[in-house]
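S.,

As promised, the magnesium ion run. Input:
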Amino acid sequence: MKSLQWRMLAALGLVIVFAWAISIMMFVSYLTEGQSNAWRTGLHTLGEKLVGVLPAEAIPPAPVATQPGGMASSEPASTLTAMVLNTVELGLVGLLTWLTLMAALRPLRAISAGLAQRDPYDSTPLPVHQVPTELRPLITAFNALLGRVDTAMRAERQFIADAAHELRTPLAALHVQAEVALAAGTLQEKDHALERLLDVSHRTHRLAEQLLDLARLDAGLHSSGMVPADLLELSRHVLSEFRVQAAERNIRLNLEGDACLIRCDVDEVGILIRNLVDNAIRHGNVGGQVTVTCRGASAANDQQAELIVTDDGPGVPDADFKAIFDRFYRAPGTVTQGSGIGLSLVAGIAALHGATAEASRAGRHGGLRVAVTFPVALKNS
Ligand SMILES: Nc1ncnc2c1ncn2[C@@H]1O[C@H](COP(=O)(O)OP(=O)(O)O)[C@@H](O)[C@H]1O
Ligand SMILES: [Mg+2]
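Predicted complex:
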């Protein structure tokens, strides 16, 4: 019997059976032995003894015997006997309840002791079947939580391992370039080494930033709340940050479309657009074009707003359209430097906003088109 409720009912039942057994025995002895049966005499004697214990002034003078059998003089004795019997019965109920509870809660004490000694990374589920039925939902919910914490912890460990792996190469390159610059014999060689050092330091900085963005996203930390914002305005702002980088590759930046109001975490959507534009510029063709288009809710589609970034570079094979959003994935044959974090950030931020990100071909001659579809902000929200 694993249910606490049933155990308590059983204990109560036991006490009721006990009380009935005594009453029946008394009744039977009354029928067989008459007024002066052993029970009655025993209880009467007990009552008299109890009265004898009380101080004489506490007992009122006994009235003259009026009832047949002369029982009026034993009124206080009967009352005291009844009180003692009630107390014994209640004590018995209490004792049985306590014993039942102790027995039912023993598995919980064992579980608590086990938890206190547990390794912090041990997420083995707690035994559900040993505990009373009423507590099983709690243990099941706790086990589910343990499972989720375990998944989150594994993801975190994986992230730290991946991040360490990604950072090792550029940090080693920084070291090497600094040594080359130090050992350079001529000023020209030194300048050259310093330029390469600066380049590696830019890449390391970008990588560290992406890793931190990813860690923040994984931890579910929102830098600011969800507020209504115009995608077109955000894109304009991001494009202005990339003017120098685009000019280095002689790429023209275009912004098209109209105002698109969405509800978003402005910082995160900024990171999303930045990663898409950065990819388009870095993977796109020298002398090409990068276009950001914002399409607001229209009569045909009044629930969604779209952000589309296209370039005219080599694009990726159709088979990789999904995989490029995976963390640390880089399409085979990609020559441009990178880590494969950018698009996984885009996918993560999109998911946080209830949006979807999809890659496709930009045109007949290649190029990549990434479209992020957001639910629009309701006008009165
Ligand atoms: N605009 C693009 N043109 C061609 N390939 C792209 C483009 N954007 C992304 N990719 C491919 O998707 C991969 C993943 O992109 P991303 O996650 O941003 O990582 P990274 O740019 O650091 O390599 C890139 O390595 C590249 O192979
Ligand atoms: Mg990228």
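Residues 4-117 form one domain. The longest strand covers residues 366-375.

- D.
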